[in-house]
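Good morning,

Attaching, inline, the C-alpha cells for the sequence recovery test we're adding to the shared suite. The designed sequence is right after.
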C-alpha cells in the first residue's frame, strides 16, 4: 500500500498512545470518530480483510529493495489460505506498536532478520486469522468449524458444499478471540510461500507511484539543508546568520545541537544555496591532524600487541606455531567504506508542544521513534514515525538515526510547520557510519607431514558496537568483530577443524564513526580467512578445494555449498582460454554460502570477472526469485567495494565527497551470476547479508591463479594486476 502522506492539524495531533498513526491514515478526533465505521475490519493484528476480499497484510519490517515485504506477505498469506492476487500491504507505525504492547514485535530490518527472526510469529498470525475466519463462517452456519476449510479466500463447509468469502465474515471474525499457538504448515505443503512470486511493490516502482521518504509532501512544508562539522566529532564555534537571512526563500537559520547548522527555506535548493554561503567557524575537537596514515599505524601496532580479546580458541596455537615445521604469515588490510545509498539521509518532521510526527526512511522504526521523542522532548506516546520505503539502506539507517534527530531539532524551532531535511550528497558521503577499517595478521603452521596444525588470526581495528551500541560489549569485547569466525552460533561459524586455533582482536578505535555495512565484519573476515586458506594450500602444495575439504569434514553444511559451486563451475577441469578460477565459502546470519569465480587478466593488467557461481543454503527459501536477485545485487555491492571503494582521511576529514571519487561497478563490468539455492529445510537463515561475503575472496583467489599476485589490501584499483 503506497501513498503520498496527507495530514491536517486536527487529525495529526491525536496521541499515538491512544490510537497510533499509520502512514497515510487520518485518525478520528472528536466528531470524526464516526469515520471509524468506514475502516475495514481487522481480523487480527496481521490481517485486515475488506468486504471486496482485498487482504491487507501488515508488515512490521521495512523494504529497501531487498524484497522482505513480499516474503513476509507470502508467509502470512500461505497460512491464511487467501487469494494472493488480492493481497496488498501496509506498514503499521511504531507508535501503534507501542500502544498495542508491541503486538507486531521487532521492527528492525537489518542483519537479515526480516524473515528468519519473525517467520514463526507472522506465520502464526496468518494461521490464527484463517482459524478465526473459518470459525466465524461456522458460527453463521451453525456447524462445527472442523467441517470447514479455507482455500483461495473462500471458506467451504465440506458436508453441504456451502461457501462464503473472507470478506463476508471478516467483521464477525475480528470479534473472536485470537487462537494461541495455531498449528503451522509443513514447507512441503506450501502453495504461496516457497514460490517465485512477483514482488508486491514492483508495479508502483515501475510506474512512478512509489513514494520514498525523500518524496514526502505536507501542507505548508518548508525545506532544510544541513552542514555538519567537517571533522567528525567536531562542533560549531559560531556562524553569521545575518549574512544569508535575506537570501531568496530563506525562512530561518538555526543551530542544530552543538555539531551543525541548518538553513530552512521554501525550497531545498534555496536552503542549500544559502547554507553554502553561511560563514561557519568550526572546532575540530582535536582530530584535525588525524589521517589515513596515522590510523593505519595505530592498527599495525595492534597486530603484535600483547593484549587482545579472544573470540575463538582451540588448543595452543602459539605453542604449536613455535614448534611448527613450516610457517606461513600474511598481513591483510581492509579500508573504510561508505554505504552510499542512492537516497541520501532525510526526514520530515512536524513538531508542536502536543505531539511530534516524523516521516523517515528507517530500518528500525522503534529506534527512530525513541530518537524522535528524545529530540522532541516529548513522551513516546505523543510521537510517532511514519515508515516509508527506503531508497537503499545497507545498514546505514538501522542503528544510527542522526538524520531523524536533526530534523526534529530543526522542526522544534518552527513549531507547527512541517520541515523536510535532506542531506546533500556531500554530507551523506562525509558523515556516514563507515564500514570499519581493520588489519589482520594470519600465521599458519604445518607439521613435518604437511598437515595444518595451527592458525592464529589477529584482527586489529575498530569496533562498531563500542561506538554505536556499547551495551552489547561483553566484558569490553565486541562479539560482532568475530562474525564468521565463531566456534558456534547462527551469526557465523568458523568452518574448519584446526587442532590449534586462536582468533583474537586488538581493539583500536578512531574518531571516524563505524557502522553496520551490508555483511558487516564478515566481509573482511571472509577475505582474510578464505584468501589465506588459498595461501596455505599453495604452501602445502595442495589443490585449494581438496585442502579445504580435509579441514571441513565436521562441517557438512559449509562443505555442501562449497562442493556445489565447485561442481557447477567445473573445478578440476580446464577453464576457457585465459580464464582462471577461485573459491571461497563462509557462514553468517544463519546461512551457508560459497562462490566460485572465473576471471581473466590481460597483459596490461585489465581484470575481467566473467562468471561467479554462488550457492546458498538458507534453510528455508521463501521466494527463490528474490533470493537470486539478492545474490546478484549483493555481488554488485560487494564487488564495487572490492574494485573501487575506499574512504580515506586527511586532516581529520573523509576525503571522498561524491561518486566521482567513490566509484560503483558499471553494468558492463558485472559478471554472469549463476545461483544455486539449496535449502535444507531444517533452519531459517538470512539472505540479504550473507550472500555478499564470498564474491570478493573468490575473485581474489582467481586473480592469484591468473597472475601469481596475492592482493592483500583494497580496493583493487590501487594495484597493478599485471602478472608477476
Amino acid at each position: 500500500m503506497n501513498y503520498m502522506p496527507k495530514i491536517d492539524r486536527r487529525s495529526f495531533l491525536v496521541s499515538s498512545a491512544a490510537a497510533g498513526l499509520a502512514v497515510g491514515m487520518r485518525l478520528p478526533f472528536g466528531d470524526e470518530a464516526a469515520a471509524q465505521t468506514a475502516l475495514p475490519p481487522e481480523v487480527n493484528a496481521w490481517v485486515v480483510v475488506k468486504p471486496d476480499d482485498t487482504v491487507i497484510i501488515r508488515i512490521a519490517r521495512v523494504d529497501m529493495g531487498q524484497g522482505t515485504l513480499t516474503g513476509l506477505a507470502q508467509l502470512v498469506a500461505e497460512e491464511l489460505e487467501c487469494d494472493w492476487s488480492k493481497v496488498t500491504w501496509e506498514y503499521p507505525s511504531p507508535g501503534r506498536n507501542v500502544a498495542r504492547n508491541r503486538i507486531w514485535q521487532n521492527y528492525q530490518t537489518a542483519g537479515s532478520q526480516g524473515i528468519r527472526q519473525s517467520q514463526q510469529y507472522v506465520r502464526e498470525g496468518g494461521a490464527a486469522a484463517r482459524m478465526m475466519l473459518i470459525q466465524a463462517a461456522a458460527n453463521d452456519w451453525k456447524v462445527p468449524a472442523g467441517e470447514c476449510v479455507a482455500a483461495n479466500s473462500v471458506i467451504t463447509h465440506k458436508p453441504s458444499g456451502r461457501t462464503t468469502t473472507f470478506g463476508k465474515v471478516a467483521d464477525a471474525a475480528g470479534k473472536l478471540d485470537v487462537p494461541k499457538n495455531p498449528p503451522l504448515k509443513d514447507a512441503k505443503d506450501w502453495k504461496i510461500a516457497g514460490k517465485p512470486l512477483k514482488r508486491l511493490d514492483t508495479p508502483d516502482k515501475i510506474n512512478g507511484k512509489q513514494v520514498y521518504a525523500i518524496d514526502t509532501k505536507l501542507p505548508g512544508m518548508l525545506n532544510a539543508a544541513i552542514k555538519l562539522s567537517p571533522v567528525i566529532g567536531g562542533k560549531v564555534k559560531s556562524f553569521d546568520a545575518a549574512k544569508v537571512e535575506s537570501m531568496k526563500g530563506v525562512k530561518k537559520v538555526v543551530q542544530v545541537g552543538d555539531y551543525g547548522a541548518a538553513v530552512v527555506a521554501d525550497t531545498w535548493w534555496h536552503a542549500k544555496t544559502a547554507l553554502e554561503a553561511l560563514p561557519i567557524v568550526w572546532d575540530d575537537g582535536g582530530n584535525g591532524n588525524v589521517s589515513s596514515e596515522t590510523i593505519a599505524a595505530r592498527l599495525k601496532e595492534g597486530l603484535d600487541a600483547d593484549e587482545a580479546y579472544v573470540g575463538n580458541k582451540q588448543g595452543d596455537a602459539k605453542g604449536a606455531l613455535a614448534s611448527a615445521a613450516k610457517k606461513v604469515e600474511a598481513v591483510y588490510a581492509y579500508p573504510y567504506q561508505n554505504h552510499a545509498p542512492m537516497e541520501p539521509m532525510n526526514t520530515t518532521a512536524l513538531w508542536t508542544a502536543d505531539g511530534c510526527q516524523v516521516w523517515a526512511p528507517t530500518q528500525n522504526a522503534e529506534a527512530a521513534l525513541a530518537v524522535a521523542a528524545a529530540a522532541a522532548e516529548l513522551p513516546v506516546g505523543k510521537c510517532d514515525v511514519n515508515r516509508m520505503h527506503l531508497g537503499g539502506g545497507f545498514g546505514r539507517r538501522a542503528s544510527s538515526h542522526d538524520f531523524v534527530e536533526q530534523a526534529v531539532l530543526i522542526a522544534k524551532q518552527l513549531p507547527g510547520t512541517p520541515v523536510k531535511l535532506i542531506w546533500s550528497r556531500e554530507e551523506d558521503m562525509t558523515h556516514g557510519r563507515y564500514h570499519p577499517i581493520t588489519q589482520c595478521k594470519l600465521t599458519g603452521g604445518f607439521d613435518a607431514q604437511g598437515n595444518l596444525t595451527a592458525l592464529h588470526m589477529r584482527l586489529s581495528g575498530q569496533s562498531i558496537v563500542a561506538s554505536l551500541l556499547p551495551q552489547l560489549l561483553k566484558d569490553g569485547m565486541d562479539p560482532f568483530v568475530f562474525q564468521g569466525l565463531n566456534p558456534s552460533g547462527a551469526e557465523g561459524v568458523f568452518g574448519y577443524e584446526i587442532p590449534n586455533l586462536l582468533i583474537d582482536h586488538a581493539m583500536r578505535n578512531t574518531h571516524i564513526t563505524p557502522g553496520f555495512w551490508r555483511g558487516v565484519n564478515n566481509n573482511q573476515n571472509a577475505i582474510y580467512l578464505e584468501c589465506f586458506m588459498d595461501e596455505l594450500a599453495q604452501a602445502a602444495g595442495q589443490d585449494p578445494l581438496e585442502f579445504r575439504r580435509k579441514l571441513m569434514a565436521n562441517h557438512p553444511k559449509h562443505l555442501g555449498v562449497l562442493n556445489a559451486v565447485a561442481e557447477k563451475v567445473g573445478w578440476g577441469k580446464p577453464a576457457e582460454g585465459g580464464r582462471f578460477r577461485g573459491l571461497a565459502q563462509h557462514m553468517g546470519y544463519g546461512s551457508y554460502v560459497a562462490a566460485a569465480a572465473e576471471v581473466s587478466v590481460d597483459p596490461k593488467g585489465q581484470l575481467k570477472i566473467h562468471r561467479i557461481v554462488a550457492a546458498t543454503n538458507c534453510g528455508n527459501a521463501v521466494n527463490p526469485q528474490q533470493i537470486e536477485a539478492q545474490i546478484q545485487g549483493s555481488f554488485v555491492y560487494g564487488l564495487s567495494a572490492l574494485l573501487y571503494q575506499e574512504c580515506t582521511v586527511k586532516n581529520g576529514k573523509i576525503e571522498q565527497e561524491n561518486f566521482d571519487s567513490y566509484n560503483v561497478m558499471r553494468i558492463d563490468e558485472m559478471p554472469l551470476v549463476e545461483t544455486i539455492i539449496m535449502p535444507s529445510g531444517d533452519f531459517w537463515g538470512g539472505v540479504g547479508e550473507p550472500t555478499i561475503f564470498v564474491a570478493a575472496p573468490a575473485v581474489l583467489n582467481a586473480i592469484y591463479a591468473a597472475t601469481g599476485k596475492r592482493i592483500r589490501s583494497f580496493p583493487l584499483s590501487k594495484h597493478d594486476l599485471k602478472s608477476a
